[in-house]
Amino acid sequence: AQTVTQSQPEMSVQEAETVTLSCTYDTSESNYYLFWYKQPPSRQMILVIRQEAYKQQNATENRFSVNFQKAAKSFSLKISDSQLGDTAMYFCAFMKPNDMRFGAGTRLTVKP
Amino acid sequence: NAGVTQTPKFQVLKTGQSMTLQCAQDMNHNSMYWYRQDPGMGLRLIYYSASEGTTDKGEVPNGYNVSRLNKREFSLRLESAAPSQTSVYFCASSEGGRGLFFGEGSRLTVL
User: Fold this and answer.
1) Cα–Cα distances in angstroms (integers) from residue A83 to residues A16, A19, A79, A80, B58, in the given order
2) By CB atoms within 10 Å of each CB, which of A21, A31, A71, B75 scores lowest?
3) B15 falls in which pLDDT band (50, 70, 90)?
């Protein structure tokens, strides 16, 4: 079974600074997808960014980017120019067909 | 666009009572899922349905049953609720590798 590990239960960052959230995973699959989801206090799960494992190029979505190291099974999320609205739980997720597994989450607080 | 709709949003049960969480999606997705979220444990997969008429167990299926009523609807039933089933439940749907689209969650408390 796939496992996803987020080793940082909580992090904080000053507004406008950059922060990196870590994620590692374990799988024997060769084709899969990786995701970061954001969960603000509203409880809604919001897709932040997606990475296809067969693509070497790291995904980028505006202020959010990933560092995908397939051999190391590492998938970190970098948030640039942090904003107060980025305060949320962030979940790393691994997906193969019809099965998505999540890490335990990192609670990020952006301080003014 | 409604996306994924789940009901009810909140429910309080007594131990031993039964209930059904309803979920419907309007995105024509083949796959649907039920997760539970507990503090410090992320989201754990209860059951999933790869297509209409099929269901499969996930990580934590014990105490739950599901029904894929049609392509749109996927319900989760607790036959005899236990305090350990106090949690937030999420329904989701997907198509291919685009990721999961989630409902707003249902908070269930079992006393």
Assistant:
1) 6, 11, 9, 9, 36
2) A71
3) very high
